[in-house]
Amino acid sequence: MKLSRILSNQNGISRRQANILLAAGRVRVDGEICREGGLNISRFQEVWIDQELIQRADPAYYLMLNKPAGYLSATEDPVHPTVMELIEPTLRDHLHIGGRLDRASTGLMILSSDGLWTRRLTEPRIKIPKVYRVTTAHPISPDTADRFTEGIWFGYEQLRTSPARLEQIGPTEARLTIYEGRYHQVKRMFHAVGNRVTSLHRERMGSLLLDPELAVGSFRPLTADEISSVG
Prior knowledge:
- It is an enzyme of class 5 (isomerase).
- GO terms for molecular function: 16S rRNA pseudouridine(516) synthase activity; RNA binding.
- Belongs to the pseudouridine synthase RsuA family.
- This protein folds into two domains: about 5-55, Structural Genomics Hypothetical 15.5 Kd Protein In mrcA-pckA Intergenic Region, Chain A, CATH 3.10.290; about 60-225, Pseudouridine synthase, CATH 3.30.2350.
- It is elongated, with a radius of gyration of 23 Å.
- The strands form three sheets. Strands 5, 6, 7, 8, 11, 12, 13, 14 and 15 form a nine-stranded mixed β-sheet that branches. Strands 2-1-3-4 form a four-stranded antiparallel β-sheet. It has a two-stranded antiparallel ribbon with strand order 9-10.
- It has helices spanning about 5-10, 15-25, 90, 115-120, 145-150, 185-190, 225-230; strands at about 25-30, 30-35, 45-50, 50-55, 60-65, 95-100, 105-110, 130-135, 155, 160, 165-170, 175-180, 195-205, 210, 220.
- It contains seven helices and 15 strands.
């Protein structure tokens, strides 16, 4: 919401009076004087008029989790454990999941209280690369990389996947980079070429790399540089 609107939403303050307060330097955003009424203010920022708090900042959380197998990417489930159970209880109500993994898959997950930020990370049209280490049931055929580069036709959605890059590591192991996040996309791509995924581990989302020091089942806050790299 624009700063001028936040100010004029207060009882007794008109839009004209809000502009006067801004021009006089009586408005502070996160402790800094602000005179730009058109500035977009997030719910994670504090706004003051003189010594009066007009908008209290919601806490902003940005977490990296090393997901183990067997946990659902959900906030709650009556049958299976969820990734939220791996998070400190006082944080759980603030968080949502940015980029899900299925129950058997492992690796990098991002949880945050900032929906606009996670949307930039997961929005398909932005085409942020997502990198997975894949193990298959059968040897990866020589034409798989070319098939993935051309895109795989998904009949249910009536669309072709964006070009993906396959780097083969061993006969049944590869690193796959995709630019979407469709339902069970990696498993369906391998199924389309006559193979089956037996393990799937996400290593990277955009510039966010799974911390090699982060133990399986553990989480940590993202650094300021990691947070600013998304966007």
